[in-house]
């Protein structure tokens, strides 16, 4: 059909272009969803951490305590009026005496320095507890990341199980129609397919929940991908001297705090004198005199020995806690390292022995089943396929256990402590 002379070439409207751009942008966003690494997940969680303001407030409170600890006692400005009322001549106003004085306590025994030491130690403990709490959070995030990885991997296994069940169902139905198998074989196959479909749906839901839980640590949607290769075991770090971790440093800070409190209690055992100076006015002669004076507790009964002994016992307890924590950590690291090695060995043997053997069994049974002989039935094929699926599911569970033990090891060795500093800088 000839084109009219006055026809204009078609051009899309602006509204259509905008709608298409929005659609392509949405599709493109999903298509290029970033792969979330462990370090990125930990960084996001550390940056978002909703409990950080509380930890910062506690540190600020400790800093205020340091400033307050260095303050000297306030002086006293006082006044006395004597002999202004009484009997006889004492009641005459012109015989009263008025005294205005200035009084100051002189701290001895290094009380102010001891208070400052305690306040600084409390500041260090507050900062140490914030670091330990942040590491606990990162361990939770790392465990959630591993759970999400394993859940994603289980989807592929569930999909394969469903595909095998559907294939076997079709083969069994053909054999039933050819009168090679009884009717209940087809019903069994349909039941297995239905169960495999349910398992696949459950795997999808579990993966979605695991991704949502992981994303909740930084308050965003689960618009990310998890690389399947991240579930594969990584080479274990060689055994060596265990590093000094924030947990052990916190115990050391608490030990320093208890030591500083001993200094405070010892300083309190030293009595503080008070001195005063002032002016006294004599009403009878209208004269003024300078007065000075002072006082000091005798320290006869209360020498603060009980408080000193208590502070010393608390320091001993913290030192014992430190020794026990080191032993417990070394024992747990050894146990987890050995279990990870055992788990990795099982994964290796599963890959080298179980999985290939199960695959060969499926091939042999299916070959006989497809030839139509009566020696191989639906049950033999289903059992052989089940062994393959179980081997793959078992491998995922082993890898998940391997990485979860790694989470605990990373927490015990403080592997992610350096990441906290970078998150604070951001």
TrEMBL record:
Q: Which Gene3D superfamilies match?
A: Outer membrane efflux proteins (OEP) (1.20.1600.10)
Keyword Glycosyltransferase on entry: no
Signal peptide (UniProt feature, chain positions): 1-25
Q: Which organism is it from?
A: Phenylobacterium ferrooxidans
Which InterPro entries would you find in this protein's record?
MdtP/NodT-like
Keyword annotations for this protein, in alphabetical order, are: Signal
Q: What is this protein called?
A: TolC family protein
């Amino acid at each position: 059909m000839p084109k009219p002379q006055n026809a204009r070439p078609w051009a899309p409207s602006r509204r259509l272009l905008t709608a298409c751009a929005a659609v392509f942008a949405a599709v493109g966003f999903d298509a290029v969803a970033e792969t979330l690494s462990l370090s990125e997940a930990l960084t996001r969680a550390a940056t978002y951490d909703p409990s950080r303001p509380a930890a910062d407030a506690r540190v600020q409170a400790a800093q205020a305590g340091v400033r307050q600890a260095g303050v000297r006692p306030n002086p006293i400005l006082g006044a006395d009026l004597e002999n202004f009322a009484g009997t006889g001549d004492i009641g005459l106003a012109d015989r009263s005496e008025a005294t205005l004085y200035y009084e100051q306590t002189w701290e001895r025994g290094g009380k102010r320095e001891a208070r400052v030491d305690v306040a600084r130690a409390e500041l260090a403990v507050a900062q140490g507890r914030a670091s330990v709490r942040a590491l606990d959070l990162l361990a939770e995030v790392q465990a959630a990341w591993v759970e999400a990885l394993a859940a994603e991997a289980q989807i592929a296994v569930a999909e394969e199980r469903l595909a095998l069940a559907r294939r076997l169902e079709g083969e069994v139905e053909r054999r039933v129609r050819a009168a090679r198998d009884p009717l209940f074989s087809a019903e069994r196959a349909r039941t297995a397919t239905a169960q495999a479909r349910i398992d696949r749906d459950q795997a999808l839901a579990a993966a979605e929940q695991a991704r949502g839980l992981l994303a909740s640590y930084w308050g965003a949607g689960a618009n990310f991908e998890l690389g399947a290769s991240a579930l594969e075991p990584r080479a274990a770090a060689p055994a060596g001297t265990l590093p000094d971790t924030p947990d052990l440093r916190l115990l050391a800070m608490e030990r320093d705090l208890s030591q500083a409190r001993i200094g405070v209690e010892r300083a309190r055992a030293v009595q503080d004198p008070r001195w005063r100076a002032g002016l006294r006015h004599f009403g009878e002669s209208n004269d003024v005199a300078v007065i000075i004076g002072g006082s000091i507790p005798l320290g006869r009964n209360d020498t603060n020995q009980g408080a000193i002994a208590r502070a010393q016992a608390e320091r001993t307890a913290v030192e014992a806690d430190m020794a026990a924590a080191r032993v417990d950590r070394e024992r747990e690291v050894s146990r987890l390292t050995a279990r990870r090695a055992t788990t990795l060995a099982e994964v290796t043997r599963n890959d080298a022995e179980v999985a290939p053997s199960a695959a060969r069994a499926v091939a042999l049974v299916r070959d006989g089943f497809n030839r139509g002989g009566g020696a191989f039935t639906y049950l033999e094929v289903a059992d052989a396929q089940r062994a393959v699926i179980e081997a793959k599911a078992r491998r995922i569970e082993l890898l998940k256990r391997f990485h979860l033990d790694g989470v605990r090891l990373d927490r015990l060795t403080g592997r992610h402590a350096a990441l906290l500093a970078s998150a604070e800088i951001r």
